[in-house]
Amino acid sequence: MRPKVLLLFVLACLSLHAQEMFTIEEVAAKWQTRTIKVAGVGEKPDVVQLLRAFDKVWPVYVNQGVLNLSKDPKFTYMKDEEYDNEMIVDRKNGYVCDDAGGTDSGSMQACVWRRTNGHRLFAVEMSQPVDPEIGVICFYDYDPKTQVMTPEKDMLSEFRPLKDHEKYHGYLLPRKGTDMEITEYTGDCEDLFHHVFKWDGMNFHFSHVTIGKLEIGKRWFSPKEMQYMGDLQYISITDVDGDGESEILLADGTDDDAGFLVVSWWAGKQEIAGLHDPVSNHEVTFYKGVVKTEAKSNDYTSYAVMNEGAVEQMITVYPTLGTGGKPKVTIDDANERKGNPVMTVEQAEQLIRSLDTPVSIHPRWIKLVMKEKESN
Q1: Nearest 10 degrees: Cα torsion 344, 348, 349, 353
Q2: Which position has the higher pLDDT, 309 or 22?
């Protein structure tokens, strides 16, 4: 065992003997029920003092590492390259963290904000990736007159997950600045959606969502067809085809003449399954299991056959390119996915004839800011 890891293990064991530890699950269920007395810290307590007060009432194993290291007033930073573990105690900026990196260990972070009424807002976030996978964030108002921390229960009440069925969210507290983020993880654990909350001096208010640069896989529509789209400023997660799996809608506005893209996933990358843009004369219609795009100016109609949120077959009909009075029908042979064979032309024509009542959707548009994905 490495010396640093051994030291932290020994210190954690001593702490375990000194006081009963709570699990993160227990704290998540009960932290709102108790105020916390913070003795002897005055009007301007630092983040470590508030974390120690929290630990006296709710001791949790993930907080013990930074608390033990912070006993040295000169300690500010430690990184274990082998285990990708990082510990920070930044009293000046009101921030501490124990980041376990990509390991199965628990992590924590804590932060302090100054409120315009002279109080402090204290937050501590604790999480672990396994046994069970859980994360909790606790907020407290510190009153310097009474030296008591009172639970703040609705600090993030404006948070609305884009994907309602996703249960795990991550929190990013600021070391610099005052705004915080909630990260929504997709099924493959990619941190695709970042909800940004602005600090107004007393509370947090939802501002916008950011996503990384789209990594486009198979291109069903050419860049020329998409050139008239404006800046993508809004996002909605909607089951557009009624198959129970959500797709992303990215729009350049929210009015009737706005354009939007229907984005699906395959093999970790995004694909444009449908294109709606009045300027380029592309019109989308949704059916059960199918996204139809009529490209009137380009003289074709595409039918994206969806399966579990991905394009399984892409049928394209060219009304003026056929022979014998029949339109030309193509089925992209790159779509032989999940072992399913490519449709025949006869099967594609039958599917198109079977399309009946369109699916009506009502997107909940949220402000979006696109950002470049960080390089590895």
Answers
A1: 150
A2: 22
